Amino acid sequence: MNNFVIIDGNSLTIEEVVKVARKGVKIKLSEQAKENIITSRKTVEKLIDKGQVIYGINTGFGKFSEVAISPKELEQLQKNLIYSDAVGAGDNFSIEVTRAIMLLRINALAKGHSGIRLETVETLINMLNSRVHPLIREQGSVGASGDLCPLAHMVLVMIGEGNAEYNGTIMNGKNAMEMAKIPIISLVAKEGLALINGTCAMTAVAALAVHDSYVLLKSADIVAALSIEALEGIVDAFDEKIHKVRPHKGQILSAKNLRNLLKESKLTTRQGEKRVQDAYALRCIPQIHGASRPAMEYVKAVVEIEINSATDNPLIFSEEKEVISGGNFHGQPVAIAMDTLGIAVAELADVSERRIERLLNPALNDLPAFLTPVAGINDGYMVAQYAAASLVSENKILAHPASVDSIPTCANQEDHVSFGTIGARKASQIIKHTQRVLATELVCAAQGADFKGKDKLGKGTATAYAVVRKKVDFLENDRILYLEIDDSQEIIKSGELLKEVEKVVGKIE
């Protein structure tokens, strides 16, 4: 049982999303979830038998909600919904995002407010567990009514249409299902709408982004600490007394992290020994990094709620025997959260690039110019800073909020949309850029530490140095650098840097 994540619609965590999406952990429905799904479906069938008019079950969709659909056309209505909504553009989502989308749709359906059949949910579970991954286009969602377009691409494979990846091969959906020995389904009343009306695409991207942003935030303190030593930074700025009199929690935690990482260092200085004050990129690390922490806490709280929410429409309330149309599909909570996350993470890259400049510019330090021992014939890390600057500048564009825009759709029936999926995708890209900038700083800081004396590093930074030096050697003469920075980025992204340092200094907050 421990090899499965149990899905009940209410208790899924971000870490479990990561396990299923990235590590291939399988899932099972709880018995209560099965009961809830069955009960909800029975409620829908009873209401249909009574001839009650219910949006999306025996009416058209959106502006066509006033059009009645005859009983014999209900199944065709659901299939047509999938066909018409599968109009995605651009590249496909990665397999890990696709798996997260499938998982979150299953979890939402498990709450028992969607009126879908149990066998339909189990089809999607079997696809996830057997690694049948629909090809889902990244672009096309306006974030209300939910993620109709990307989720329709997911459902195409369930009905033997569209395309999927299975065992590393791209094939049509019918073949993928046959090879995995999963029967394709025919959608009955309400099922097409239940499968696609919700925020699961934006929230899938968001959940993975939240996980990655926390790893990145903590790693940023580690990387910055190594830069402090390479630049013989002044540790007085991290004194606990300073931060207690401006008691922002994030600032206090970041300063504490730096103090712990720099314990036993013989490279740091005190105010007045070499300089009275450091530049802001060093002196204000707790204030800058710390400011991102409460923003990320807010984002995490939103995403934790959203991954356990019923976000389709209409919703079935079996105890009351009611079907109520509402707006839980609207992605505004996620949209604002993802815009916030993008800004919070972009700032980590901003200040990291400034530390790279201080490590490379001989006018700002006493290190060899561009960290090369033989200047002129060698450029060292000169152009690595150019690449970092390029990513920082691109982040500024990506950090423009998506949620402040709205283009009405569906003949003005859907007259305000969230663009939450765009916001989530942008935040995810900012995270990748920021990983790269910090990876560049990490190799530069390690190079600087070699010039200053790696044996003088602090307790935590010595470990950080050792981790990066397993993959990236000292730069004696110019060589191809991008693959080494790739390795450094993977050290940060995978959490290896954070994990190894925490073994030495304890938990990084």
TrEMBL record:
Cross-link (5-imidazolinone (Ala-Gly)): A144-G146
PROSITE patterns: PAL_HISTIDASE (PS00488)
GO CC field: cytoplasm
Record flagged with keyword Cytoplasm: yes
Pathway stated in the Swiss-Prot or TrEMBL entry: Amino-acid degradation; L-histidine degradation into L-glutamate; N-formimidoyl-L-glutamate from L-histidine: step 1/3
Modified residues (2,3-didehydroalanine (Ser)): S145
EC primary class: lyase
InterPro entries associated with the record: Aromatic_Lyase, Fumarase/histidase_N, HutH, L-Aspartase-like, Phe/His_NH3-lyase_AS
Entry protein name: Histidine ammonia-lyase
